Amino acid sequence: MSKADLSLTQRLVTALLPARSAAIEAESREWRTSCECGHEFSVWDAGGVRFKAAGSPTVAIRCPSCRTVARRSLTRTPPAG
Ligand SMILES: [Zn+2]
Known about the structure:
By secondary structure, the chain is of the alpha+beta class. It has helices at 8-16, 21-30, and strands spanning 31-34, 40-42, 58-62, 69-73, 75-76. The chain has one domain (3-76).
């Protein structure tokens, strides 16, 4: 993903915390949800950022596939290994 693909939120956060940007992106990618259209995506895919968070929150998030905004519960799925 090139810098041009980042959302405003993601550019702000990575600009403010350049040393943490890789960790922030990695953690944001671990928080995943799925849409009614069947598309599965991460907070990062949706242009959001989630860092140093726990639990199973419900947030309003836009599906990158069908563009529907809805409140969806996020599940953290650490990468295998
Ligand atoms: Zn969708």
